[in-house]
Design a protein that fits this description.
This protein is an alpha+beta fold. The chain folds into 2 domains: about 160 residues, no CATH class; about 200 residues, no CATH class. Helices cover about 45% and strands about 20% of the residues. The chain contains 10 helices and 14 strands. The protein has a 7-stranded antiparallel β-sheet with strand order 2-6-7-1-5-4-3. The longest helix is centred in the middle third of the chain and has 35 residues. The radius of gyration is 26 Å and the shape is elongated.
């Protein structure tokens, strides 16, 4: 599956129709949740069938495409499943909440009710049932059949996210690499290369603080407050776009050169909670988005047939990558010096250890699978 995100340019009339569709879908979601809360036994078919009753009772729901309303039931049960999974993991969570205007951000056209027309190299028309043909900027050509379209509004801009059945494919390389994540260096690899952390949020922090202050002075419900909120949203959107662009390019480059990628299995929540890590600004931990980068690596490596292995990072910065000796070094010391004569950048040394641990995992897996194969063969004989 492939996802394409394109900018929409609706007219004022179309924008009003989109806002109305959002409001009616939010109303439907809340009514379905109310029905579920009142039910003694939760039955998805019964709750979904209640859409027929709602349409008879509230005539305005006829202004929304039927499958778009049905998807709200799918969304509700998807949220319920996510809540159950969190509870199973021991995380304290409450009940599903009713959606307010600010918390309802997307509507979906699933399988039908849409049509994309290319009118030029970069522009086209997206026809949505009950709304009309909306101008769309297609900055790249889509491949495969469109299976679903999600309409979203962020920071005063409208977007369409197109999901197609195109098979996502990347090319892998022949190398093997270990990656150490950090704040000063976003990654240091086992080949001695280092990529400095861009810290996009930190660079935009002065502007964001200024707009936050400006927003706090505006009267609630006023047009000026709405404008200030949009301005703040645009700043955050820019930071997110910069970060995503950086991580997409870097992850693609790493996968294109390697068939084995070994990374740290980090627990970000635990890292933030540790007192010793208060030496670093906690905002910088979150600004790096290591978990998101690891997810991108895994997704692209899977499509290319490469392998990503997460290893326990414990003692990887303390252990010598040459002789295996252990030593305690303070965080401020950036060079690792060992009695065996090795003198190396601290993060590069850690990356080499991560690669070695990953290699050990691969060899153990290969050995165990070959032993299983031998056992099966001998039992057949």
């Amino acid at each position: 599956m492939m996802a394409y995100k394109f900018r929409l340019y609706p007219s004022k009339q179309q924008e009003q129709a989109l806002f109305r569709t959002f409001d009616l879908c939010r109303f439907t979601y809340n009514k379905l949740l109310e029905k579920m809360n009142k039910s003694e036994k939760i039955n998805k078919k019964e709750i979904q069938h209640s859409l027929v009753e709602f349409k008879k009772e509230f005539s305005g729901l006829d202004d929304v495409y039927s499958k778009t309303l049905q998807y709200e039931c799918h969304k509700l049960f998807g949220n319920l499943r996510a809540l159950v999974q969190l509870k199973r993991k021991g995380i304290k969570v409450g009940k599903l909440r009713f959606k307010g205007r600010e918390w309802f951000k997307t509507i979906n056209y699933n399988q039908s009710g849409y049509e994309l027309e290319q009118t030029g190299k970069r522009y086209g028309k997206l026809k949505l049932s009950k709304i009309g043909k909306i101008n769309i900027r297609c900055h790249r050509i889509t491949s495969g059949a469109i299976k679903q379209i999600t309409i979203k509004k962020t920071a005063g801009k409208w977007y369409a996210i197109l999901i197609t059945d195109e098979i996502y494919k990347k090319q892998k390389g022949e190398g093997q690499i270990g990656l150490d994540f950090g704040i000063m260096n976003f990654i240091a690899d086992s080949n001695g290369n280092k990529i400095k952390s861009p810290l996009f949020l930190k660079k935009s922090l002065k502007k964001i603080k200024k707009v936050h202050q400006d927003l706090s002075r505006k009267k609630k419900g006023s047009y000026n407050r709405k404008r200030a909120k949009q301005k703040l949203g645009k700043l955050y959107e820019k930071v997110e776009n910069q970060r995503n662009d950086f991580m997409h390019k870097l992850s693609t480059k790493i996968v294109s050169k390697n068939k084995l990628i070994c990374i740290e299995g980090l627990n970000i929540k635990e890292m933030i909670s540790k007192k010793k890590n208060r030496f670093w600004n906690m905002r910088n931990f979150l600004d790096c988005s290591w978990a998101k980068f690891a997810s991108m690596l895994k997704h692209k490596a899977e499509s290319a047939g490469a392998e990503v292995i997460e290893v326990n990072p414990k003692n990887t910065s303390r252990m010598c990558s040459s002789c295996g000796a252990m030593q305690d070094i303070p965080l401020s010391q950036r060079t690792y010096s060992c009695d065996c004569g090795l003198e190396i950048e601290r993060d590069v040394n850690s990356a080499k250890n991560i690669l070695a641990l990953g290699w050990g995992f691969v060899e153990n897996e290969t050995a165990s699978s070959s032993m299983k194969q031998e056992a099966i063969t001998s039992s057949i004989i």
